Every structure is written in C-alpha cells, then in structure tokens.
Amino acid sequence: MKKYLLMLFKIIVFVVSLIILYLLAVIILPLFSINKKNEKKSDKTISIYILTNGMHTDIVVPVKTDVIDWSVTIPFTDTKSKKVFENIAFGWGDKGFYLNTPEWSDLKPLTAINAAFGGTTAMHITFYNDLYVGENCKKIKISIEDYKNLVQFMKNSFALDSNRKIQYIKTDALYGDNDSFYEANGRYSIFYTCNTWAANALKNANQKSPIWTATQQGIFYHYR
Description:
By secondary structure, the protein is of the alpha+beta class. It is 33% helix and 24% strand. It is built from 7 helices and 11 strands. The radius of gyration is 19 Å and the shape is globular. The mean pLDDT is 89.
C-alpha cells in the first residue's frame, strides 16, 4: 500500500511541477522581445493592426494592396452581409471553441481537453472598415518586404483542398454579419494557442514579438 501511495505522491508532484513550470513560462517568456532592431526601418508603408477581445489576438491587414488582394482568395460573399470592406482580420484558433462555444457557459469538458492537448483548428476571418486605435487595438507600420512575409505566413495557415483552394466552413456559429470560417493547418494546444500563432505572425513579419506567449497580454506588452 505504501508503495502505491508513494507512486501516487510522485505523480502528483510531477504534475504540479509541470503546471508550475508552464505558468512560469507564461509569465516570464513574454517579457523578452525579438526583432527590436526592425523599429529603425524607414520604408514602412503598410499599416497593419493587432486587435484583441481580451483573450484572443487577431492580425488585421488591408484587404487590397500591391502585394495581394485578399478578397480574391477570401470573398466578401462568404459573410452574411456580403458587403465590401477595407480591412481583413485573421484569427487562428481551436475549431471546437470557434464553432461550438459561442459563450463560455457553453464550454464542454471534452472541448476544453481537445483544445488543451491538440485540437483541430480553423481560421476566423472578420472584415472591418475603420479601426479605432486604443488599448485593445494597436497600429503598426511595416515595409512591403515584411508584409510579403506576413502574407506568406497567413497563406500557410490555411488548409487547402486538392485544388489548392481554401476550404470554407459552412456554419451558423458566426460572431456577426461580417465574418467567416475556414479550415486551418496546425494543432491547437496550451503550448501553441491562438496568441502564439499571432505572435509568430508578427515574428515572420519581422515585428516586435515575445519569444513565446500563450496570452494576448504577452503580445500587447511590447506595444504599450
């Protein structure tokens, strides 16, 4: 009996230690930034935004530039409103959360477990016109070359069909009249969250970004 109790104790200590290490990483690693030198670039002509709802970070870019016209790949007609907009927001995240959890009260244990340890993912697209810079929305000016890198990162985040086309998800689980969902690449977990994806998007665009973060605070800390 003592042998089993000792084994159980060791397992508990191990699990608690992992949780503590994870929480320390969540707190400490976002404090360290990369790509600070890029701030001195003088050829920044494209405006992008980081946008948060308090939990999740979106990367917002112009719909049309000389680099790409996103409305060709992601048509306005995929939204309820079918209106034309100037800006497009990209959010990568757990598919179960996006489609099955409109409110936190709707969260099911299985959805949470799947998300924490390797949930399937979706791209959430939202169209905007005017964006108001403030605590939850920061404007960033980047170069054309950096934007090309960002565009490629965005493209690589979509799961394509056999015809190399993005895959629209038909669902009623929309957040409004100006958004839509698509199949995405990658697996969601506590180690690679929606905010980790957004931070990596900024890294690929050579913008300030935490070394690693699971939270939106880890991104916005560097854009205070």
